[in-house]
Amino acid sequence: xxxxxxxxxxxxxxxxxxxxxxxxxxxxxxxxxxxxxxxxxxxxxxxxxxxxxxxxxxxxxxxxxxxxxxxxxxxxxxxxxxxxxxxxxxxxxxxxxxxxxxxxxxxxxxxxxxxxxxxxxxxxxxxxxxxxxxxxxxxxxxxxxxxxxxxxxxxxxxxxxxxxxxxxxxxxxxxxxxxxxxxxxxxxxxxxxxxxxxxxxxxxxxxxxxxxxxxxxx
Length: 218
Fold this sequence. Notes:
alpha/beta, Rossmann fold, Arc Repressor Mutant, subunit A, six-stranded parallel beta sheet
């Protein structure tokens, strides 16, 4: 069975190289290309409307204009449940990996991966499995094993919440700014205080200043 692949990367030369490689692999074929996440979603919606075959796997870059790889992955997984996303990017930071997997990615590879590993990740995703770059997997294991203290204990969203709390935003204003419910904002604030072992918003503000998230007053 042929595995249909959609290539999403804002660099034409990268897409060209990926296409040349994928099309030499047995059972793999390139269904199309997109220069950003928004264009990828447009293509998928168009193909579905026309009743054309959809890709089985999307090979997705992370940093792109208009709509980045994290946002595109979230939307693809939500709107097209049968499509799997494999991230292929230059960035191996643990936070990015966590965000990609939380968005629903079925694989995470670095762009210096061997072609055989890229093909293996695509095939694994098509089978419903998750494939991680060996170096990335090692980082995740070390991150999980290490005690999490300070800012490293917070997700990217929680750091954003901490910054807003430190700037004096109440829960309602945080909710409006981030387009979430006030209850969700309250939960985030509670989680931040709990993870940092802080007792109040004032302590959170002092912590944020000390860590350089916001400048000191005056």
